[in-house]
């Protein structure tokens, strides 16, 4: 029986545009023109007999049906790339991907998810190093660098993949001892600070319209992951980035006592040297990060 397969180039253009949310960025990744991506997507829409994207100025958004379709075909492209590397180019089987990312992000978001990447790509070795240095200050070259953004650095391509906001979080046990009904109740609590983020609590208190609030006590830590651990241990209330505390909120280790306000924060972005931007392994890892972030944020929204 003949297989009813859509044009593969059209599928590839759809997958890239849907994952990146931009025809322009898809064109850059695929090394084709913006018009070529649009033409491929249009051909796929005609083949399927359905619209796949809603156009919003310079960005595009997937339709509901297209989101489901993308979630199913995305992993197939990864599997195809892995099979090609395995049987077509044996010298790529033991390639190592070097990644540099901030320590707290690595500990709380990246490491818990790396097992899924390793399961899908057992022949890829991932070497992760942690640092908060700016790109210009790094003494080594990496395949993928994760930093806040979006920022522009000469010689690097940048793609945002994980957005976040900051909200107060604490342990359920702390709330049992000292309930938090309104933000003003924090006068009875200990606020947990991170020395590298001195403005986080003042900015949130200003947004909550209680800028002069004086807590019962304050503790400061030099690393953000220590601040979050102190919150988990019931020592006080921390300002938690939604992306990095999503797993703790889902498991009940932490709770968010207030619906708002939510303090805007910078997104996590991947920065890749221009010389590596077309590397298949780099593209594979970037695509995996973006899918994991999409899944993580969908869970947080629920």
Automatic annotation (TrEMBL):
Protein source organism: Paraburkholderia phytofirmans (strain DSM 17436 / LMG 22146 / PsJN) (Burkholderia phytofirmans)
Family (UniProt): Belongs to the LysR transcriptional regulatory family.
Position of the signal peptide: none
Cited PANTHER family: HTH-TYPE TRANSCRIPTIONAL REGULATOR (PTHR30537), HTH-TYPE TRANSCRIPTIONAL REGULATOR TRPI (PTHR30537:SF74)
Protein name: Transcriptional regulator, LysR family
Pfam families, per the entry: HTH_1, LysR_substrate
Domain annotation HTH lysR-type: ranges: 6-63
PROSITE patterns registered for this protein in UniProt: HTH_LYSR (PS50931)
Alphabetical list of Gene3D superfamilies matching this protein: Periplasmic binding protein-like II, Winged helix-like DNA-binding domain superfamily/Winged helix DNA-binding domain
Alphabetic keyword roster: DNA-binding, Transcription, Transcription regulation
GO MF, any single term: DNA-binding transcription factor activity
């Amino acid at each position: 029986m003949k297989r009813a397969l859509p044009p593969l180039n059209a599928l590839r253009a759809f997958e890239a545009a849907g994952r990146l949310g931009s025809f322009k960025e898809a064109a850059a990744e695929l090394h084709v023109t913006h018009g070529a991506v649009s033409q491929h997507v249009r051909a796929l829409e005609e083949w399927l007999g359905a619209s796949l994207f809603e156009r919003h100025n310079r960005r595009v958004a997937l339709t509901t049906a297209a989101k489901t379709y993308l979630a199913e075909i995305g992993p197939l492209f990864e599997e195809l790339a892995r099979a090609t590397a395995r049987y077509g180019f044996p010298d790529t089987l033991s390639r190592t991907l070097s990644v540099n990312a901030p320590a707290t992000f690595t500990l709380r978001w990246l490491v818990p998810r790396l097992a899924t990447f390793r399961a899908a790509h057992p022949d890829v070795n991932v070497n992760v190093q942690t640092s908060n240095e700016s790109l210009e200050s790094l003494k080594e070259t990496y395949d993928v660098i994760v930093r806040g953004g979006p920022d522009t650095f000469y010689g690097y391509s940048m793609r945002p993949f994980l957005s976040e906001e900051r909200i107060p979080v604490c342990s359920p046990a702390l709330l049992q001892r000292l309930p938090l009904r309104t933000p003003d109740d924090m006068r009875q609590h200990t606020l947990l600070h991170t020395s590298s983020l001195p403005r986080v609590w003042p900015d949130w208190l200003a947004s909550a319209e209680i800028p002069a609030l004086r807590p019962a006590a304050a503790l400061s830590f030099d690393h953000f992951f220590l601040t979050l651990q102190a919150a988990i241990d019931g020592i006080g209330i921390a300002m938690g980035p939604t992306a990095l505390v999503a797993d703790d909120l889902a498991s009940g280790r932490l709770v968010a006592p207030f619906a708002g306000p939510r303090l805007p924060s910078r997104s996590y972005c991947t920065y890749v040297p221009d010389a590596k931007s077309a590397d298949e392994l780099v593209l594979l890892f970037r695509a995996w990060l973006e899918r994991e972030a999409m899944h993580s944020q969908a869970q947080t929204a629920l």
